């Protein structure tokens, strides 16, 4: 299973970063096709909404028929839809395609987390390699964009999905007894309701800042190259914290991560230079890594229906990705300041911390799954 885990973590690196490489340039591409800024905002929300529905459905399905087939389906569908983006000439057609991209990309994150857990991996492993993938592909996106047109980034993304398919074909899935999960898994939702609600609030706050991140960096006088490397600091910090410290020190409490995020984000509002932004990026990256790995680890540990529970977790993330831009828009309308969105984000994430603190599922309910947490 150790070989299986190594391949799965390599796949996680690729499929976490590859879609982001293209998604960074989706607003620019949509604008090329004639979209207004309002339409671009709606496009992002529709993509997240599609992921929300897909993650819950296919996570549940993986508990019934196994992980490998669902993963291969997700990678194939994602690669195909990103490749088709190359040929889009009208925004209306691209809008429809983004719906299918959201469905496709939503298929696999929760299922891959469950598969890594089945292969004796931990959620620190899952989150760390995902962060490393994001950092790697942010860097690659800049290179590809610099030597070709935006359209070719979609082809590059599809190519990396092809690599992930070839790697996933090597997965050796152990025999897992099918888990009967009702169509509407109310018991699972009740068992994890505080985690799901806290993750929704936390990612709502995170997405508020991500929506205006590039514009904010321009306010603090960041060059085009600087946008890339400053953004990379956050996922690189997550990777280093999770691999070098959190796993060895057994720091697995997501509440600590949420509190760090809630306290660090408002400091972006008062940062006066790039050095200060870099320091805050390192601190917030530490919080993000502990929050995400810890919360997903608790979900995996306490639920035998790993695919369903982790799929609902990813759906909660997607809901936050939908709500964040709308909340950010309201904050901008009220305060007319990019810096205000970071204060609002900190407040919302702190609410997530408070909700997470209400979670009181006894450790004995986690059963044998705790070994992979």
Describe how the helices and strands are arranged:
Blueprint: H1 2-23, H2 26-32, H3 37-65, H4 68-85, H5 91-107, H6 109-118, H7 123-147, H8 151-168, H9 186-191, H10 193-211, H11 213-219, H12 224-249, H13 254-268, H14 274-302, H15 306-335, H16 340-356
Helix pairs in contact: 1-6, 1-7, 1-8, 3-5, 3-15, 4-5, 4-8, 6-15, 7-12, 7-14, 10-15, 10-16, 12-14, 13-14, 13-16, 14-15, 15-16
Explain how this protein is built.
With 373 residues, the protein is an all-alpha fold. It has a single domain, classed as MFS general substrate transporter like domains (Growth Hormone, Chain: A, Up-down Bundle), CATH 1.20.1250.20. Helices cover 79% and strands 0% of the residues. The chain has 16 helices and no strands. The chain has helices at residues 2-23, 26-32, 37-65, 68-85, 91-107, 109-118, 123-147, 151-168, 186-191, 193-211, 213-219, 224-249, 254-268, 274-302, 306-335, 340-356. Helix 1 (2-23) packs antiparallel against helix 6 (109-118), helix 1 packs across helix 7 (123-147) and helix 15 (306-335) packs antiparallel against helix 16 (340-356). The longest helix has 30 residues, at 306-335. It is globular. It starts with a helix and ends in a 17-residue tail after the last helix.
């Amino acid at each position: 299973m150790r070989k299986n885990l190594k391949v799965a973590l390599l796949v996680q690196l690729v499929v976490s970063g590859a879609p982001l490489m293209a998604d960074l340039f989706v607003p620019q591409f949509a604008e090329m096709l004639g979209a207004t800024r309002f339409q671009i905002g709606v496009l992002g929300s529709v993509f997240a909404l599609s992921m929300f529905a897909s993650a819950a459905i296919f996570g549940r399905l993986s508990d019934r028929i196994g992980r490998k087939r669902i993963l291969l389906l997700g990678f194939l569908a994602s690669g195909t839809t990103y490749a088709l983006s190359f040929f889009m000439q009208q925004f209306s057609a691209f809008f429809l395609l983004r719906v299918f991209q959201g469905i496709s990309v939503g298929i696999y994150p929760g299922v891959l987390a469950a598969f890594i857990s089945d292969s004796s991996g931990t959620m620190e492993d899952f989150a760390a390699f995902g962060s490393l993938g994001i950092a790697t592909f942010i860097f690659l996106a800049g290179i590809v964009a610099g030597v070709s047109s935006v359209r070719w980034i979609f082809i590059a993304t599809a190519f990396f999905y092809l690599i992930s398919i070839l790697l996933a074909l090597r997965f050796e899935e152990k025999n897992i007894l099918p888990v009967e999960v009702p169509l509407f898994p109310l018991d699972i939702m009740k068992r994890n309701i505080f985690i799901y609600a806290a993750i929704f609030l936390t990612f709502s706050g995170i997405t508020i800042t991500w929506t205006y991140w590039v514009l904010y960096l321009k306010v603090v006088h960041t060059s085009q190259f600087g946008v890339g490397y400053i953004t990379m600091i956050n996922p690189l910090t997550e990777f280093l914290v999770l691999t070098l410290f959190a796993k060895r020190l057994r720091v697995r409490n997501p509440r600590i991560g949420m509190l760090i995020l809630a306290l660090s984000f408002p400091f972006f509002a008062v940062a006066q230079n790039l050095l200060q932004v870099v320091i805050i990026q390192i601190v917030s990256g530490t919080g993000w890594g502990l929050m995400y790995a810890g919360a997903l680890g608790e979900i995996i540990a306490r639920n035998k229906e790993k695919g369903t529970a982790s799929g609902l977790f990813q759906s909660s993330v997607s809901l936050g990705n939908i709500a964040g831009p709308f909340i950010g828009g309201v904050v901008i309308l009220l305060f007319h300041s990019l810096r205000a969105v970071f204060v609002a984000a900190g407040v919302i994430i702190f609410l997530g911390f408070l909700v997470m603190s209400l979670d009181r599922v006894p450790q004995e309910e986690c059963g044998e799954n705790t070994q992979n947490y």
